[in-house]
Amino acid sequence: MLKDATMPIFSPDRHACAPSYVKLTKQPIAGGTYRPLANDEDSNACAPSALSGHHSSKLYTQKSAIHATSDNTSIFISGAGTLPCLPEMVSSGSVSKAEIDNNEQIASSELQPHQPAEQPLNQVVSVCKRAAHTTAKTLSTAGHTAVKATKVTGHAIHTAATAVKNAWHTFINFKAVQLIIKFFRKAYGPWKKRMRFSYAFYAIVFTLLTSAEVIFLQWGVYSEPTYDKGDEVDQTTKILNSVAGQVTKFVSQMWLEQKSLFLVNFVGLGLIYLALIFVTNRFWIATLLFGTAITAFGVANSIKIQLRNEPIIPADFTFISGGDAGNIASFIPDNSQQFVENAVTVVIWIIAICLLLFLLDRRKCFIYCSWRKPFASAKNTVGTFSRALAAVVSVVILASYATNLGTGGSWSNMWAAKQGYTPTLFDAAEDARNNGPATTFLSLTKAPTMDKPEGYSKQKMQAISKKYSKLANSINKSRTQQLTDSTAIMILSETFADPTRLPDITFDEDPIPNIRNIMGTTTSGTMLSPGYGGGTANIEYQALTGLSLANFSDSMIVPYQQLVPTQSNPYSFNQIWTQKYGESGSEAVHPYYQSMYLRNTNYKKFGFSRLYSLDSATPVEHTEKIGESPYVSDSSTYQDVLDLIKNQKNPEFLQVVTMQNHMPYSNYYEAEDVLQSSVTDDTPDDEHSAINVFSTGLKYTDQATLDFLSQLNQINKPITVIFYGDHLPGIYLKEEQNPDDSFLLHETDYFIWSNDASPSANVKLDDSEAAFSSSNYFMSSAAEHMNAKISPYLALLTKLHEEIPAISRVISNRGGIGLGTATYLQSDGTVTDSTSMSKTQKQLLADYKLVQYDQTSGKNYLKESDFMSVD
Questions:
Q1: Pairing between β-strand 806-808 and β-strand 823-825 as defined by DSSP bridges
Q2: CB burial class (10 A; 0-12, 13-18, 19+) of residue 192?
Q3: Among residues 523, 866, 559, which one has the least CA distance to residue 720?
Q4: What is the pLDDT of residues 298-334, one digit of tens each?
């Protein structure tokens, strides 16, 4: 490296090939000096050709052009730099010529090979510089644009604000407005000093509103009694039996009978009210919510009692959470519309009064607290802590009271029992009438599924599995067919039941001639239904699983809503087909909304590959209706089933639930098509009209079913149909009052039929085996009808059906059956009870309960065996 280098002077004519340069003023610079250039004859040493091997481009490159002048006499050489291309350095005495020659050789040898790579590098640097420059320019432009837009927007806002401000000033300057302002200014002082309502006043409102809601709920579960014309009933009896009389008795029994059931309901509702007060910390807001919610609950409860003879239970709220609130509202009968409108008016008044009192009351918080400054003072600390504690404690007490009310031996159950509470949850409607709907509802918030049977253990279940495996092997020796070789169609026909079975009702025309004829030629009989006016999902649950509601605890009212959603792998008979054919083994059709009774969730748990409904991913294709009916006709539903059968790859299990004959029964059909019935003179007109409309729907079902079976006969595939009605409609008001008719209200019709392509065509089981049944036996009966091999589980049901033809949880006083006792039928249709059964019957029933407990509440030990498998 050169030290104390000097700047040689270049003559302009020696650089004619280079761009012109501006003369640099001679000035001292640290680390370098100025020296004159060499003579002209030595200038060729630095011609462009001589500089090709050096970094001359670095020496002369500048951001802007440098212009040379004729008097250019000097150039600067940095003291730290080198200039190996200048021979003049030799003469300066700073370095020797040999050193310079050596430097030139080194520079030439080092720099020459890298020359080609430096040009692309310079191009990249140049492109990057241009890109950076362009980006900076773009950002600058965008920034200027944003600033300009901000200024324009700000100006527009300012202009608008000014206009609003001017308009406001103009408005308030009106004399009328000024008078109003002066009035409120004068009134603000007294308004600010308005009174805080006392806690005593709150207590009075709390007591009155809670008592009113208890009475309203109780009023909704009663109905006015009817009397035959020949009955001689005194006026006092009529008054006592009226709705008003029954409500009065419910309240007054605290003093007359020492039964404080009114108090039990008051406490239940009061705990809900208190929880709302402490959670919201606003008395009037809580009052508004409580009054509105309980009034709406009472209205819905009354309508459900009227239609289905069943109160609202906690599981019913799955309809709302599933988005079916609007669908439920469509079930409201015409004669209840005025009642609903009146209730809406009451709710509006409750809301208006509560809002007004909320404004008038200066006490906003029920318990003083300050969330902004919770610990600013002792008062704030105590208030905030008390407010949070009260909310938590009130909710905990309510939850503990409700979840323990239905559990014997718990604190709330024992307290309620001392007040006269006697649960009859097997008949929720009767329980609501006796104990109050609020108590009934709360007692069902935690529903135990089933009591643990005596002797339940893994060893016991293994023994049962072996026992019925032997029975299945014995039965299968005489059977030649396989269930999975045929398509099985299980049809739940909504509300299908022979209306001529009830006394005092006759028709000029038989509503169901075709089905009556079919039942005479194939396996058929009478089904014992646990429901009346409702409970479709319960009968469907029994048919799909083989389990009976009679074995469950009284608080297990709707398994589809209370049990199945909590199970991980529940068993159902369609799995016989899915185990062989996979996902294509079972499908379901329901021409209504899929979340009703949580079918979309439950069917997935059961293993159905698809559910075709009105709102499913693949909806039902045929949705034709009859007249003004809001429901899809049975003929349309049957057509969807036929389409599935024609497109199937293998035999299937098809679950079908129709909707055509669902309540209510308004004037849907043409007047000339409506069947006319003859009833006794004291039958209410509403009941008579509903019977006629319902029976007309059955007539359409009868014809559609015949057409459906005829089309199945044209298909060259073995098909078996299991057809049954789920329950009677809740329209027989007179019969409900007669205990002798109560059993008839739980009898529907069923048949099992096979098409011509099936080996079991024209088979009819003997009436001794088929005359009476319940839906839990349908699959075992179908297997017997089809001469098909069965699993150990179906063997148990087959043997149980032989010994106990029908099992159901039915409320009936016939044959000495008391309330709360499961109903069992003998082969002749007579009623028996568990105490009078034979040893064989008792053992079968005990095994059945163990199997049901294992599947629903136990350890599911049977899953580890082949108990559900069909060989």
A1: antiparallel
A2: exposed
A3: 523
A4: 998 998 888 777 788 887 776 665 555 556 566 677 7
